[in-house]
Amino acid sequence: MALLNLTDMARMLSSLLLVGAALQLRAEAPAFDEYQVKAAFLYNFAKFVQWPLGTFANSTDPIGICIVGQNPFGSTLENMVQGKKVGDRTFAVRRLADTQQAGQCQILFIGATESKRTRGLLDAVKSTGVLTVGESDDFTALGGIITLRLEGPRVHIQIALDTAEHAKLKVSSKLLNLAEIAKKQP
Amino acid sequence: MSESLPKGGAGRRIAILLARLGVTLALSLGIAIVSGAQTPPPRDLTQFSLEDLMNVQVTSVSRKEQKLAKTGAAIFVITQEDIRRSGATNIPDLLRMVPGVDVARVDHSTWAVSIRGFNDVYANKVLVLIDGRSVYQPVYSGVSWYAQEMPLENIERIEVIRGPGGTVWGANAMNGVINIITESAKDTPGGLITAGGGTDMQADRLVQYGGKIGQSGNYRVYGRYAHLGKSDASTFAQPADSKRTREGGFRSDWNLTPRDLLTVQGEIHRVDGGQTITGVIFQTPPITATFGQPVGDDDGNLLARWTHRYLNGSDISLQAYYDQSRVFANGANNWATIGNIDFQHHLRIASRNDVVWGLSYRANANRFSGNSLVAVNPQRRTDSLYGAFVQDEITLTQTLALTLGSKFEHNDYTGFEIEPSAQLVWAPNPRQTVWLSAAKAIRQPSNIDSGLQTISAVQPLGQGMYGLVTVSGNPNTKVEQLRDYETGYRAQISGRLSLDVMGFLSFYKNLQTTEPQVPYFNPASGYLVIPLVFDYKARAVSYGAEAFATWNITDRWKISPGLSLLNVSVTRDASSQDSAIEHTPGRAPRRSYQVRSFINLGRGFEWDQTLGYTGPLAAGNIPGYIRLDTRLGWHWEEHWDFSLAGQNLLSPRHAEFPDIHFVDHMQDQRSVFGKITWRF
User: pTM to 2 decimals?
Assistant: First the structure.
């Protein structure tokens, strides 16, 4: 009677678990959380963007990365850039409630949670030499410079080149080659 | 009996098969292994180049997925990416990737799809929903896969629950539920034109446009034409298993307020079967019947759903739909009109109880006009089905949750039915879940069960005498019952590897049998009538296991192996004379294995394949077979996608299901399909 064949069932299950254990041995390399990857992009932008003259007081003035509103990175971003240097500059990560203190920011991250006030925030820092980075599909259309957009399991970069030029930012061709250039806004 | 596993052999055979699959895959993926043979990436992402960062796969675990990972049920989710990369052109072929689902192509346009055995062209133990609308036809208890056409591009995901889902979904969610969910109109803006063609699916064209309505609304409208060619070899001189689909539809989603979402959608379909032949069903006197009349399906539906989220996190939804269909085949017609309304309320009580409860009502009006072989009595019938369900997920400790619930449902055949379930979920950490469940589910009787009248065979008895075998429904219907016990283990073993393993033990009772009655002589026409009448005199026990894993071997190469093992045995009551019922287990493979592989070759190229083995079927002596499907896709610029897919590449054709119906042909054949997609 099939019901009594539980030993067979136990055997099937144990062989499945063995397969699982065998697979486990081969898989040390981790995948990353979305915001770990986005944090790494923010760090990289510091290397591939040149800010206008006079942005920094001196050659060791840190690069300010600011997060407006809700912080989706947790402590990832701080930990990642701690002790890192681009040229002689270290990093300073700040959290802002709004753009009032955005003067100390070279990179301003506006997360998807701030969608309602994105346009307002962007207008406040327009043409001030701040590299604005967002996540929503319409970020560049609203006047942002770089969108980090999730496409399937990967993070894509979209750059509004004209907006960047307007803010007097020089974006390295290396970054431009990899990014998608956003269509000009009328 | 022959259905039990040889002792000690199962483990070894699995190992051999997996090894065999592994070697074949490794050989066929030579390029991938070379391109993927890079050292594991360093943990510090700041060491990554921009190119590397762009290729890193992220795990964005949404709340819903987290919830899925903690479900006390066997669930498999087919994502839009799975759909795109499968190269499939129809829904049944997509379901092949789900361990535990049996998919057999009976002829070119007919499929048999079931979960955990009991497979048939109208398998009656699996509920199928499209955006919450049931496509399980109450008239004949089953899903006509022939008629389930939709643009696969618009499917967001397909959730396949193996095992009973009666507590939430009600009757007929017995062996499983297949939930097809389309994308919100918000996610499909702009134009989409696809043109595909091949040896099997000869034409598949979709034209779609989506946009905004005012500030808060989004819409899409589409039209599609598809022509599935006939098979190239046939039991008939000219195959009749082609079909043409013409369909159109729309979906609109409105954010009435930030907390209110309204969805209104509708579709019309027309599916026409190929009819180039006149086939003879019976040519022996006294009955000669031929078929040559059209076969097809017309249907249309309209659905509206309103969801409101309260500030405290609870939500309510109200959904209503209207569905009208006509199925026609060989002169018989069935008109069905269904109106359905569902209300659902999800709330938290105290801090420990996550409660969902709901009410539902369905009216189903049916009219059947038969042909010379089939009739349903009464011809017109209107049934109502109403019910309530409640389910409470109780947080016992930080890591342990107990879910209890039941459906209480009234149908016009057997009155009140109760479908309770309990699930215990233990998640000792966010990466692992162990679950146990017990549930009761039913299959509700249908019009056919109570009122069918058909001639199923003519038997020459010698000396010019004929016996006429008739099959009749039985007004004294019963529900088929399932008691099911399951356990499973789900683990995110590392950032790159996840595993899902489960086992089940199911007890069925009151399974439908066909019982011979005393034959009688019909002097007027001079033949012997051998009547068979439906009854409910069989039991079954089944057990088995299903497992699948997802393994990101490198950032560019992912594989998903899966397997399912099934053992069903059916026993009839001492009073039953239906010996055929005991062959039911032979209609589903006892084992199947597969490996899917996804490779990103870079520069927008993708190379994907599926290699799978399906075990033999005892019914019809269908041998086991190995399928290899492959697809090469190229994403160009932003707006263009090109793909070329080959299915069943290893053999010109193979049989997948026995000929137990009047279908044309029983083989699935090698095919190639190319497609161009333009988005603007």
Answer: 0.73
